[in-house]
Amino acid sequence: MNRALRYAGVAVTTVALLAGGSAVAFAAQEVVHTPAPVVATAPATAALTAKASVTTVKAWQEFRITGTAKGIKAGTKVTVQQKQGKKWVSLPAQAPVNTSGSYAVRVKLGIKGVNELRIESGKTLSPVVKVTVR
């Protein structure tokens, strides 16, 4: 209950009791209904998916990584990251999220062997996708 209304109710009750009657005191007290508390809903959790168009490519052969972006505003750029040793390195391969929430990034890789890739947008990361370069 609002503090000001609570004090006003106590004041009315006190004055009524001093004036000479308990029935008058309770009749004078006003019933105040407070609205239900507003519960904020959490924003949709951002999520990215990723799928490579191929599993094996020749060095520097172009392929695509496509996926969906939920909870990420259209026009926001997604970036391809490659695991190099123990670090994730952002590659110069980006694409914007379109209005339907999907994206398609063109990628070329030169490091031979199994390459672990993921899509990044801010703090949101996709699952890892593996592409072998021969």
Radius of gyration: 31 Å
SSE-based structural type: alpha+beta
Give the termini separation. 71 Å
Residue ranges: pLDDT <50 for 5 or more in a row?
A: none
How much of the residues is beta strand, in percent?
A: 35-45%
Task: Present the secondary structure layout.
Layout: H1 3-19, H2 22-28, E1 47-48, E2 51-52, E3 56-57, E4 63-70, E5 77-84, E6 87-96, E7 102-107, E8 113-121, E9 124-125, E10 129-133
Helix pairs in contact: 1-2
Concise structural overview:
By secondary structure, the chain is of the alpha+beta class. It is built from 2 helices and 10 strands, in the order ααββββββββββ.
Explain this structure.
The chain has 134 residues and is of the alpha+beta class. It contains 2 helices and 10 strands; from the N terminus they run ααββββββββββ. Strands 3, 5, 6, 8, 9 and 10 form a 6-stranded mixed beta sheet that branches. The mean pLDDT is 84.
Characteristics:
134 residues, alpha+beta, 6-stranded mixed sheet, 4-stranded antiparallel sheet, 18% helix, elongated
